[in-house]
Amino acid sequence: MNASPEEGPPGRRPPGMLEDELLAALWATGRPMTPGDVQLHLGHRLAYTTVMSTLTRLYRKGLVTREPTGRGYTYTPAVNEADHTAQAMTELLSRRTDRAGVLTRFVSSLPPEDEALLQRLLRGEDGP
């Protein structure tokens, strides 16, 4: 079975998934974390060097900030989860030629409560 380019090779995470896991750990704790803190939060599923290099990549992309702490850094999200997710959705949509088709299928796949929320937002009413 061949994986699509967006999924990556079989047995590997899709592109961006590791970065999202680390961002989720930072969002969940709500405090600056060292690479070791992030590794511990994730249950030591990742090597320390993997966590450190991924945090460095997130820093270079502007998704986290870092402050010198001892001989290393502590990391803090530069964006909140809602903004990050909305930006990712917008970027993905902008790369598609059939935007109407994508949006139609997206909305039709939403659970009823999310569809109702989207309708309220489109009418200019406040969110949840």
From TrEMBL:
The keyword DNA-binding is annotated on this UniProt entry: yes
Keyword Acyltransferase: no
Keywords on record: DNA-binding, Transcription, Transcription regulation
GO BP, one annotated term: negative regulation of DNA-templated transcription
UniProt-recorded Gene Ontology molecular function terms: DNA binding
Family classification: Belongs to the BlaI transcriptional regulatory family.
The protein's name in its UniProt record: Penicillinase repressor
InterPro entries (UniProt xref): BlaI_family (IPR005650), WH-like_DNA-bd_sf (IPR036388), WH_DNA-bd_sf (IPR036390)
SUPFAM superfamilies the UniProt entry points to: Winged helix' DNA-binding domain (SSF46785)
Alphabetized Pfam families for the sequence: Penicillinase_R (PF03965)
Top-level lineage group: Bacteria
Native source species: Actinoallomurus iriomotensis
